[in-house]
Amino acid sequence: MRTYDRLRPTAIAIMEQLDAYGVELDDQGVHVMMSPVNRHELAISRLLRQLLPQLGPDMLAHAGTPEIDDPGTGRLRRPDLVVVPEAALERPGQSYLRPEDVELVAEVVSAPNPENDYEHKAADYPAMGIPTYLIIDPRKSTVTVLSEPGSTPEGTRYRTRRDYVFGDQVEAGGYIIDSDAFLPYEDGS
């Protein structure tokens, strides 16, 4: 039995019983997410504010929830922000997104766990078929845009990577983001 199949009920129970900030599931197991720091939340709020006027009439940008559940790859991820068609949230039942609904995911790197965003999620999101992955890194004052998921000798990966520094105009999935809106972490957090 796959890790996903065995541990998904545990991940769901943790979310429901502990009222955790977030829970994710991958080959490494169940990960309980800690509440983020203020500048992490500020970056997501400012990103959301910039995306909203650029969205088409049937599109939504949503921060914090819902999770993306992909039984095919055995992944349950909770991005900081997603861009999806409104119809994806009109479905009845539990608020899990299907990977094929997601147009863009964004993550703000946390100081204690950067490898989660740069390694694990940079492998999971293209495997799920998500076209654009935006990484905001207040530790280094950088923004990275990964796009064009496709097969490589190492598996499914993003084939295009563009790096920016805070202050640059960033193009991600057809959206323009002014990265001057983001603040670096103080003292590495």
From TrEMBL:
SUPFAM superfamilies with a match to the protein in the record: Restriction endonuclease-like
Domain Putative restriction endonuclease: 23-155
Full protein name: Uma2 family endonuclease
Keyword terms, alphabetized: Endonuclease, Hydrolase, Nuclease
Domain of life, per lineage: Bacteria
Gene3D superfamilies assigned to the protein according to its UniProt record, in alphabetical order: tt1808, chain A
CDD domains, per the entry: DUF820-like
UniProt GO molecular function: endonuclease activity
